[in-house]
Specification:
Keywords: Signal. The chain is mainly beta. The protein has one domain. Helix content is 5%, strand content 39%. It contains 2 helices and 15 strands. The radius of gyration is 16 Å and the shape is globular.
Length: 183
């Protein structure tokens, strides 16, 4: 079973036209623990469509276990912590450029919890700000995010609502999966 998120047909007026060849193609998505051990969680397919880049995110939900947390079924990776996928709940254009990966960042939200704690705490959100490296790899490092921020829909559906002032730092050595790579 997989979760497929697409956005090739949706227009976005504020698309920047840079580094076309750097983004196109299919890539694997890996979450990486503090010792460098990788866990593949799905694929990202990016296609140029004349006005920018649409993408499809296909998470391999067979890698995740079902957990019923705070009255909601969640798909979680199990390790020293539960690392639960939190689908962004509103429509997005699923558009990116090499300089602006924010919609993809919104589609890769997680929350963490210790296995022995009760319920899900939305203030334990994980947000990976992403950058394209010189080699074309997309990389990100986990930051804290209070997921209560997305409890109601944003007024403007064309601009990603989560910004740099909404995310915070936390001790990465204390988190199970502090890094993400898409290559």
């Amino acid at each position: 079973m997989s979760l497929r998120l697409t956005g090739f047909a949706l227009p976005l007026a504020l698309v920047l036209h840079t580094h076309a060849a750097d983004l196109a193609g299919e890539r694997q998505i890996y979450l990486i623990d503090g010792q460098g051990k990788e866990q593949a969680i799905g694929t990202l397919t990016v296609e140029a469509d004349g006005s920018g880049y649409g993408y499809t995110l296909d998470l391999d939900l067979n890698q995740f276990k079902d957990h019923f947390l705070s009255m909601k079924e969640m798909k979680c990776l199990e390790g020293p912590e539960l690392w639960c996928y939190v689908p962004y709940p509103y429509d997005t254009p699923r558009r990116i450029t090499a300089d602006d990966l924010r919609w993809l960042e919104h589609d890769l939200l997680f929350l963490f919890k210790k296995p022995d704690t009760f319920g899900a705490r939305l203030w334990n959100g994980i947000y990976y700000p992403l950058e394209v490296s010189d080699e074309g790899t997309i990389r990100g490092e986990a930051h804290a995010l209070d997921l209560n921020l997305i409890a109601s829909p944003p007024e403007d559906l064309t601009t990603p609502p989560i910004g740099q002032y909404d995310i915070g730092d936390f001790k990465l050595e204390g988190r199970w999966l502090p890094d993400i790579e898409i290559r």
